[in-house]
Write a structure and sequence with these properties.
seven-stranded antiparallel beta sheet; single chain; two-stranded antiparallel sheet; alpha+beta
Length: 158
């Protein structure tokens, strides 16, 4: 990466493969600017809806959750596809990453599924959340994919 772009929050700089996949597939999405009030609301929703330790959700304290270990990208994408099978594809999700300069992306779950590999490759840790349905996926760089439901909202089993 060009050193002058180190603090650039432009999606084409931060998540170029995600942007390219969205453009190539002509997917509908909305970019949420990094460090914007809306981006802060997304982070706040995660922290108030789930117990968090450091930068990770404390899944052991989430009553309705499911975690799977993954070994490589193909395993991660396959596990994600399996875990989303009971969720409404039309749900609006926000995808956000651990890099605070990364913008977030809002799109339908069905579209996120189409570019899951690019989404997961974009940063060490990834969250895909649906505030209206009150659930969240977390991909942790140490090899876990977890899904959980917030203490309020509709319930789904994954």
């Amino acid at each position: 990466m060009n050193p002058r772009n180190r603090f650039d929050s432009n999606p084409s700089v931060r998540i170029p493969n995600v942007v390219a996949a969205i453009e190539n597939m002509k997917l509908d999405c909305r970019v949420i600017e990094a460090q914007s009030p809306e981006a802060e609301e997304v982070a706040d929703w995660i922290e108030t809806s789930f117990p968090v330790i450091g930068m990770q959700i404390d899944w052991g304290n989430v009553p309705k959750h499911n975690c799977k270990e993954w070994q490589d990208m193909d395993d991660l994408v396959s596990s994600f596809d399996h875990m989303v099978s009971s969720l409404p594809r039309s749900a609006t999700v926000v995808i956000t990453w651990s890099d605070g300069l990364c913008p977030s992306i809002e799109m339908q779950l069905s579209d996120a599924m189409k570019i899951a590999k690019e989404i997961f490759e974009a940063s060490f840790d990834t969250w895909i959340l649906c505030r209206s349905e009150a659930w969240c996926f977390e991909v942790h760089h140490e090899g876990t994919l977890c899904f959980g439901e917030a203490s309020v909202g509709p319930l789904h089993s994954v």
